């Protein structure tokens, strides 16, 4: 399942029922301010957890909770941060999150996502080539139905290189000593899945 995020986060602070009383008593009115609302990953498999993250601040340091309507008939009520929700069917979903403080102040944020069907598992093939004395170049060809994100290459000598795809597609390493090394190339996609392949090289 591929998730394309349409960034349409909207912050709105509304003073609740407690505000008139606060104003009458001369106390400062509270405001709940939305700092950010986003989907943590752009793609996920069908049935997998899609993570949402929102950050609010209360000017009076009041405690607050959130009601999150995921647009598929499901609603969660609880903490505002690190919310997880699986989507079972493809489609376009409107997400509405309402934050409420204990003082009655409300802030609303919205966003939309498009969910498409699963497009296949992750895989990787790789080759290792001696390009210079004791220098091995690893070329990898990962594939996935989701966004490829990170890659790691373990060089078989206790060292590894980590980075983001596609900059890691071609990566080399200079060995300090000759010998036989087992290299492991590993790739991750945005759904959290991973795949790996091993290569044995002789370094003279």
UniProtKB/TrEMBL annotation:
Secretion signal span: 1-23
Protein name: PKD domain-containing protein
GO BP terms: carbohydrate metabolic process
Keyword presence, Transcription regulation: no
InterPro entries from the UniProt entry: Ig-like_fold (IPR013783), PKD_dom (IPR000601), PKD_dom_sf (IPR035986)
Organism: Umezawaea endophytica
Domain annotation PKD: ranges: 69-115
Record's keyword terms, sorted: Signal
Gene3D superfamilies in alphabetical order: Immunoglobulins
Positions in coiled-coil regions: none
PROSITE patterns with a match to the protein in the record: PKD
């Amino acid at each position: 399942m591929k998730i394309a995020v349409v960034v349409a986060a909207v912050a709105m602070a509304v003073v609740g029922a407690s505000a008139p009383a606060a104003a009458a008593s001369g106390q400062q009115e509270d405001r709940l301010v939305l700092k950010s609302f986003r989907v943590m990953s752009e793609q996920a498999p069908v049935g997998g957890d899609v993570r949402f993250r929102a950050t609010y601040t209360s000017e009076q340091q009041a405690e607050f909770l959130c009601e999150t309507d995921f647009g598929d008939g499901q609603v969660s009520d609880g903490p505002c941060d690190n919310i997880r929700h699986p989507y079972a069917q493809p489609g376009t979903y409107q997400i509405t999150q309402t934050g409420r403080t204990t003082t009655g102040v409300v802030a609303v944020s919205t966003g939309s996502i498009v969910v498409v069907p699963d497009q296949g598992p992750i895989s990787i093939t790789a080759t290792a080539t001696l390009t210079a004395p004791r220098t091995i170049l690893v070329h990898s060809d990962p594939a996935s139905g989701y966004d490829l994100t990170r890659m790691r290459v373990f060089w078989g000598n206790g060292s590894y290189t980590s980075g983001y795809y596609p900059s890691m597609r071609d990566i080399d390493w200079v060995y300090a000593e000759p010998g036989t090394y087992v290299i492991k190339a590993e790739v991750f996609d945005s759904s959290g899945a991973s795949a790996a392949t091993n290569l044995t090289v002789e370094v003279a």
